[in-house]
Please model this.
Amino acid sequence: MRSFGSDNNSGVHPAIMNAIVESNTNHAIGYGDDIWTRKAEQAMRALLENESIKPYFVFNGTGANVIALQSCVSSFHSIICASTAHIAVDECGAPTKLTGCAMKEIPTKDGKLTPELVANELHGFGEPHHSQPKVIAISQTTELGTLYTIKEIKELADLAHKNNMYLFMDGTRLSNACAKANCSLKEMTTDCGVDIFTLGGTKNGLMMGEVLIALRPELEMNLQYYRKQTCQLYSKMRYLSAQFIPYLSENIWLENAQKSNTFAQLLANEMSKISSIKITQEVESNAIFFILPKDISDKLRQHYFFYDWDISRNEMRLVCSWDTTEKDIADFINYLKTITN
Model:
């Protein structure tokens, strides 16, 4: 069944599947000491134009986020994030459990933190009765599909560094952000002062997998141990890392994101022509947030799977994928028209 429920629901890009099959040759040393992992690491270094980094490949976004945060904090620290952040809402408390840190959640109208909002949480430094602020955590793109500009990221990085803190970027849909901003991965991360970030693959054409990159030596130092403790060290690593060779070196990471962004814009444009639909967030990536009268959304659910976002106002989310087609959109819009007329 094709739907706009999630970019997790789409299949695997053919070049990625081929890479997995091609890695299934003979024997290879486990736990990442293989030629596929070395090639994938080098592809990541080339993309960031940085030969000193050590990429870490993991199964999923939650694992990548937890490992990244563990590298930044001690249990008496706090992590500042938007109240809609994936680490606060959708990871079953894993970041809190595995870091031991307090999570300081800030309400936002668009999923984005600002220096002004964060500044309200920057107090209690050196006071043993209070958790010590240590990480500003942002999602790029946000859980509301919105985009941090390069300028906005730099401002948050400057604020973090001024207060001896780190800026962590959850990059599950970072590819979509680079596609929208028409910039390189380096421009969106290294050049902005990001200290540690993830680059997603699972939602963008991979079978599984994310890659974690620390841009500060002290954060990279213990990542190999955190990855093992967090159950994210794959014994047959080649099947995971092999995906990243074409994904990075053949620009699939960006091309897939460009496709899903483009189709989200097309879908949103068609939806905006239907008077009973209200689109609630700026469509800046591959996600669309909208409100429909409940009787209409109930009918829509009979033919399409999608998630609720804010039940109190019947706000829902649609997500386009790398393999979304014009026919998918035409079929969806045609059905919407039949139930709204």
User: Anything to note?
Assistant: The CA atoms of residues 82 and 106 lie 5 Å apart. DSSP finds 15 helices and eleven strands in the chain.
